[in-house]
Amino acid sequence: MSERLVQFVETWQSSIAQVMTQIAGKPVSVSWEVAAADATPARGEDDLWVRFRAPSFGNSSELAFHIRSADALTLAQVFMGEAIIPSAKLNEDYREAVAEASRQIAGRAATEFKQSFPDCEITYLAEPIPEWKPEASAIFRLTAADWAFTADVFLNASLSHYLSKPAETVPEPQHVEPAPVEPAPVDSGELVPEDPMSPRSGIPESQAAAKPVQAPAPPPVDGNLARPPVPRAKRNNLDLLLDVSLAVTLRFGERQLTLRDILQLRSGSVIELDRETDEPVDLLVDDRVIARGEVVVVNGNYGLRIAEICAHAERVGLLAQ
Questions:
Q1: What CATH number is associated with residue 218?
Q2: CA–CA separation, 201 vs 179, rounded Å?
Q3: Which ranges of 150-239 does DSSP label H, i.e. alpha helix?
Q4: Is the pLDDT assigned to residue 260 strictly greater than 60?
Q5: Is 187 contained in some domain?
Q6: What confidence tier does 38 reach under pLDDT thresholds 50, 70, 90?
Q7: Structural domain boundaries enclosing 69
Q8: Is residue 80 domain-resident?
Q9: Residue 321's closest CA among 227, 182, 209?
Q10: Same structural domain, 136 and 277
């Protein structure tokens, strides 16, 4: 294996060990070994595949983890804090537990990859079974005091070829600064809002350069966020405040209670919120929703993996009011 490919696998090894140790509440050791690229394991009916897209390593780069049903059951029971019962059925709750554990591991891996790839993105795919032929493969072995299981990882051709190149031949990720925006025209002393389709309005820079007119601006996370861009004079003033600390809050849900109900609350009381467990949570700044995403665990702390966020200009507009 090339040096880059070994580093890639070792980053996943480290991420798996850290996240599983946090989940299990006990040390979890992870080892790995190379497997033949064409050594696709026998697929059981209840086996699970967890698939990710990694565009930072090539536009069509993907990897997929294959977890045998018995090992998936062990992983799910560890994640849910249950006793290891090999005879249990791998139901939908267990399958979702495996998916969530995998997303947390991928989030940790993306964080570590950002040291070399600042814009690293690893995206979980809802249709996990890969249709491509593996070009590289490895086996991870996870071991704790009272359980152990294995997981196979497969890399597609794009990802394998990218990581197999010598380090000097692989271009480092380029950061393109947004093109300078010309001052807004002034008519009768009135400031004109910035063109919402400019590169600074929240459109990804690659789209703004290729299609500055046709590319649509990202949709807002909430209906009340669709407000006009802030005039240039206000935004210039905001530049003076960019280092000011703001309180960021995660909102899992809401519930209205009468004063009588509040006074009757006791230790152990349960308050049901207006949001399902699989719905995204809100990210609020100054009581305004600017993004939504899923809750993850990072180094033992709660975190948020952002799934949708309002455009840059809208965020400026919200915080300027």
A1: 2.30.330.10
A2: 12
A3: 157-164, 205-210, 232-238
A4: yes
A5: no
A6: low
A7: 3-169
A8: yes
A9: 227
A10: no
The answer to whether residues 204 and 305 belong to one domain is yes
Interatomic CA distance for residues 84 and 86, integer angstroms: 6
What single letter denotes the amino acid at residue 33? E
Regarding whether 145 and 7 lie in a shared domain, the answer is yes
Point out which residues pair with 268 in neighbouring strands: none
DSSP string, 110-146: HHHHTTT-TT---EE-SS-S--SPPSEEEEEEEE-SS
30 or 176, which is more confident?
A: 30
Supply 310's token pair: 């309002």
Looking at the structure, tell me whether residues 39 and 98 fall in a common domain: yes
Structure tokens at 254: 């809401």
Looking up residue 147, the CATH number of its domain turns out to be: 3.40.1550.10
Please check whether residue 191 lies inside any domain of the structure.
no
Residue 155 sits at φ, ψ, to 5 deg, of -110, 140
148 and 7 part of one domain: yes
Q: Which of 240, 40, 245 is nearest to 156 (CA)?
A: 40
Question: Please, which residues bridge with residue 295 across strands?
Answer: 304
User: Are 212 and 178 spatial neighbours (Cβ–Cβ below 8 Å)?
Assistant: no
For residue 49, give every residue at least 6 positions away whose Cβ sits within 8 Å of its Cβ, in sequence order, or none.
64, 65, 66, 67, 128, 129, 130
Verify that 64 and 106 share a domain, yes or no: yes
Tens digit of each residue's pLDDT (9 = 90 or more) over 118-169: 778 888 887 778 889 899 999 999 999 999 999 999 999 999 999 987 755 4
Q: How many domains does the chain have?
A: 2
Q: Which of 159, 102, 157 is nearest to 133 (CA)?
A: 157
Q: Give exposure, 2-12, as e/b (b: 16+ Cβ within 10 Å).
A: eebbeebbebb
For residue 67, give both structure tokens. 């977890």
